[in-house]
Amino acid sequence: MNLPLGLALFLAGLLATEGLLSPNVSRLSYGELSQTQGLKAKRIAHELAKRNMEFGFKLLKKLASRGSRQNIFFSPLSISTAFSMLSLGAQDSTLEEIKQGFSFREMPARDLHRGFYYLIRKLNQEKQGTKLAVGNVLFLDQKLKLQRNFLRETKNMYEAETVPTNFQDLEYTQKQINNYVSQKTQGLINNLISSIDPGTVLILANFIYFQARWQHRFDPKETKEENFFVDKSKTVKVPMMFHGGMYDVGYDDQLSCTLLEIPYRGNITATFVLPEEGKMKQLEEGLQANIFGRWKRLMSKR
C-alpha cells in the first residue's frame, strides 16, 4: 500500500527595499563534500536535529495551550529550514530573533548552513521504493531586485528555486503558487494559499513529499470500517487497516502512553504514541529532545 504524505508551509513578507537580503556570511561553496567535511557536516546535522526537535516540541506546546480542539499538524523542519535560509539575508535585530527562536545563536553561520545543506541532501532520496523530497522556492515579484549573492547561496545551500511572479495580479499569483506546490507534492496539496495580502512581493514556500511502502504490507482485504473517536461524544466510521505480526511496542510509565513503531522499507520508521485517556496534556508537557532515545529503550518486539 502506498502512503504518500505531502506537507507545505508558506511564509509571506512585505519587502519593498531595492537590493534587500544581502548575505551576512562570506560566499560559501558546497559541492561534493570530502570525507572529513562530510563527517563534520554529519555532526552538525545531528546537533541541528536536536535543536529542531526542541523547537518543534516548544511550538507544539504553544499551539496546544490555546485550547483548540482541532488537530495540530506541522513540520518543524520546514519552518526551521525556511528561517535559516532567510537568515542568510537578515541583519541586526531580525537576525538575532531568528537565532534566538531556533536556538541557532551559539552556532557559527557557516556551520548552520552546512548542517542544513547536509540534511537536505540526505533527506532527498529515492530508493528501495521510498521517495522523500524536500524543497524550497522563492516566488519573487518581478520588480523586486534581491542581491545575486543571496539568491546564489539559497540555491547552492538550500536547493531553493526562484520563480518570477507578478504580485500586481494576486489571483494569477495565487494560482501559480498553488499549481507549483500541487505539482511538487504529486497533487496532494492543491490549495496551499487561499489569499495573498496586497503589497506582498515575496513568498517563500517549503514542501515535503513522502511516499513509501510498509516493510510488512497491510492486506487490503483486511481493511474494515470501524469507529474513530473524534472526541468523547462524537464518532465517525473510517476504513481501518489490520495486520498481525511482531512490532516494537512499549509503555512509558512517566508519560502514561503506549508506543508503537511500524517500519517502512529502507531506514524510515513511523512512531505512534497513544496517551491514556485524559493524559494528553501530561504527554505534551513531557516531550523533550531526547524523548525518542528513551522511548527506544522502552520498546521490544511483541
From TrEMBL:
It comes from the Eukaryota. Pfam families: Serpin. GO terms for cellular component: extracellular space. Residues 57-302 form the Serpin domain. GO terms for molecular function: serine-type endopeptidase inhibitor activity. Keywords: Signal. Residues 1-19 form the signal peptide. The keyword Glycoprotein does not apply. InterPro entries: Serpin_dom (IPR023796), Serpin_fam (IPR000215), Serpin_sf (IPR036186), Serpin_sf_1 (IPR042178), Serpin_sf_2 (IPR042185). Belongs to the serpin family. This is Serpin domain-containing protein. It comes from Marmota monax. The lineage of its organism: Eukaryota, Metazoa, Chordata, Craniata, Vertebrata.
